Amino acid sequence: MRRIESAEITEQVKTMCIQANTELGKDVVDKLEDALKKETSPVGCDVISQIIENADIARDETLPMCQDTGFAVFLVELGSNVEIVNGSLENAIQEGVRAGYREGYLRKSICDPLSRENTGDNTPAVIHVKLIEGDKLKIVFAPKGGGSENMSRIAMLKPADGLTGIKDFVIETVERAGANPCPPIIVGVGVGGTFEKSAILAKEALLRPVGSKNPNPRWAETEEDLLKRINALGIGPMGLGGRTTALAVHINTHPCHIASLPVAVNIQCHAARHKEVVL
Amino acid sequence: MSNVIKLKTPLQVSDIEALRIGDIVHITGTVYTARDAAHKRMIDTIDRGETPPFDVKGQVIYYVGPTPPKPGKVIGSAGPTTSYRMDPYTPRLLDLGLRATIGKGQRGKDVIEAMKEFKGVYLVAVGGAAALISKRIKEAEIIAYEDLGPEAIRRIYVEDFPAIVANDILGEDLFSQGKEKYKTQIPR
């Protein structure tokens, strides 16, 4: 058994909370720079330039790139030969969030669903754990803003709806979202599995490097076709009109029940933040 | 890119009459911050016949809930939040003389109509450009509802705050017109 101290997990999580919120990934910045070259709307270009400049300021001054520093979401892969000592994995992560959001001067955005009373420390985080072989612990942190999460949708399609049904649902979701999720967006699509599995697939799809292709050529082609159709909607940067509505469409899939065709669309704003650590 | 139009707050009707959708503006002066909970409280106060925390006449409201300021800074990151959630309250405030709102995302029909009737404009700031905007905020002071934390009402002083005119006093809407202009048809 390999032992990992819970305090080490807390420390790493704290650091990731601050870094993810202040350092936009190079994959996203590169895509924004490409988009700036292709955008034909003057207002759209102004918006994209501001987003790029904002990312530079955030990185240089360790300032959150967006005031919505998000819901703390974790995707964890825990090797079966790992033993967490002096505390639980759950508590170690929650404690890391508490410390990171406090010490990083990040906004605390989590509240009771009805009373709307703020929990005050941005916990509880949502933690998805996968048990895998080996002696490593991988933690991915993805803070998720409210504006784009609010525009996400799920549908239990009929198998007869097929690929056309999937595409129509994705496009309809992006069109309904319009300006609200802060385009240019990244569209994460989960196809298959069960109701909840499709949503997790969509979330995982958002964590792929921006613009990476699905390894299956058929799905890769669907990603490309959807991106083209979404950018033909005209919504544009911040919804003010233009050719850059999405930077990428990522589809992740899983086999499903013979009676089902679940499709989940998780929308991500341009502040596509995530960090990972392997212990 | 269009020329930048400089605006100084408080705003007179004459300052915004000439603004048209798609214009890029830089705002300098005092602006008030308020979002969901602060709007609800302000309207409740007005409904009771009491005085709201500030007189909205000629003023600008910015929809924002900033991050906490680091030591020595006046404010944290401060990008716009989605405006439609404030739609139920905005026509009332425009009727009382509010001249401009700043946020992100499209406004509802009632708000667009109210801007036409009472002469107001809606300005869009870039969602997520929170660090950049933070640098343009030179002073910030909580003036009401401190218990609401990020949602408290702040009086801020901004210099060259960048925004885009999305709705003007003619009732034009950049969101729908912009989308129509850049839309292309792709056969299925």
Short characterization:
The complex is a heterodimer of chains A (279) and B (188). With 279 residues, chain A is an alpha/beta fold. Chain A has helices at residues 6-22, 26-38, 42-61, 89-103, 146-149, 162-177, 195-206, 217-231; strands at residues 2-5, 71-79, 82-85, 126-132, 137-144, 153-157, 185-193, 246-256, 261-268, 275-278.
Which protein chains make the most extensive interface, counting residues with beta carbons within 8 Å of the other chain's beta carbons?
A-B, 51 and 50 residues
The profile of the biggest β sheet of chain B is: 5 strands, mixed, barrel
What letter string, H or E per element, gives the SSE order of chain A? Answer: EHHHEEHEEHEHEHHEEE
C-alpha Rg of chain B, in Å? Answer: 16 Å
Determine the CATH superfamily of chain B. Fe-S hydro-lyase, tartrate dehydratase beta-type, catalytic domain
Notes on the protein architecture:
- The complex is a heterodimer of chains A (279) and B (188).
- By secondary structure, chain A is an alpha/beta fold.
- Chain A is 40% helix and 25% strand.
- Chain A folds into two domains: 2-20 and 65-144, no CATH class; 147-271, no CATH class.
- Chain A is built from eight helices and ten strands.
- In chain A, the strands form three sheets. Chain A has a four-stranded mixed sheet.
- The mean pLDDT of chain A is 97.
- Chain B has a single domain (4-185), classed as fumarase (Alpha-Beta Barrel), CATH 3.20.130.
- The relative contact order of chain B is 0.22.
- In chain B, strands 2-3-4-5-7 form a five-stranded mixed beta barrel.
- The chains are: A alpha/beta (279), B alpha/beta (188).
- At the A-B interface, helix 3 of A face helix 5, strand 7 and helix 6 of B.
